[in-house]
Amino acid sequence: YAALPKLQGRATVEMVMRKDKGAPFDIEGVNFPEANVKMVLDGYTAPVTAGNFVDLVQRGFYTGMKIQRSDGFVVQTGDPDGDAIGFVGEGSPKLKGKSGERLIPLEIFVKGDKAPTYGVTIEDDGRGGQPTAMPFNAYGAMGWARDEYEADSGSSQFFWLLFDSDLTPAGKNVLDGRYPCFGYVTEGEGFLRDLKEGDEIVSAKVTKVVGGGLYK
Questions:
Q1: What is the pLDDT of residues 148-175, one digit of tens each?
Q2: What span, in angstroms and rounded, lies between the C-alpha atoms of 45 and 37?
Q3: What is the C-alpha to C-alpha distance for residues 62 and 179, in angstroms, rounded to an integer?
Q4: Is 212 exposed, middle or buried (0-12, 13-18, 19+ CB in 10 A)?
Q5: Which residue of 128, 157, 202, 213 pairs with 78 in a disulfide if CB–CB is 3.0 to 4.6 A?
């Protein structure tokens, strides 16, 4: 995966989003003209996944993109207009989509390991049920979307988990070990519940990097 961007350390990304047709965000009865969401990405446990996201943010890939899924379980975006289902650009020659998408491998860091495991779920690796270093155990946990039946099919689509301790208990949900968690929302998580399909990301930028930054 030498040709793929990777994140050393951690990075903070801030997004500003607005509702379709200029409507306000309603957070517990208080209206806001826009949503401000701050995320911290962890390159220590998900260097390729987090690095891919940081690279796309810096390219302006998500700017102007609409929210594409909001079903009470996750809020998801990242599928560009056109035939491609992800970012089309340079990457690993062995990981390319049908429309030239830059694909990234499934990256899972099992707690206690010294490095991530690539290209396989923990069930398929014979370690089903083992905890991951970054679990989907919090509201606003960030995951990388992929084809359910193809491990190395992620490109640019990501999601925020609308965590519920009863529906998605930590260590016993359908995400841990099957999808990489690469960061968490640290501020503005309340806006996620009111993000709907058609709402727009008006800006996305990297505001802080600790521990090395992005390298390719």
A1: 999 999 999 999 999 877 766 666 678 9
A2: 22
A3: 21
A4: middle
A5: 157
Give pLDDT tens digits for 40-75: 999 999 999 999 999 999 999 999 999 999 999 999
pTM of the model: 0.95
Q: Which residues contact 186 (CB under 8 A, 6 or more apart)?
A: 12, 38, 39, 40, 140
Residue type, 75: V
Using only C-alpha atoms, the chain has a radius of gyration, in whole angstroms, of 16
Task: List the structure tokens of 32.
Answer: 């806001």
Per-residue DSSP letters for 152-204? Answer: T-BSS-EEEE---TTTS-TTSSSSBTTB-EEEEEEE-GGGGGG--TT-EEEEE
Nearest to 157, CA basis, from 67, 86, 83, 59: 86
**Residues paired with 75 in a beta bridge:** 70, 160
Two structure tokens written together for 39: 């995320």
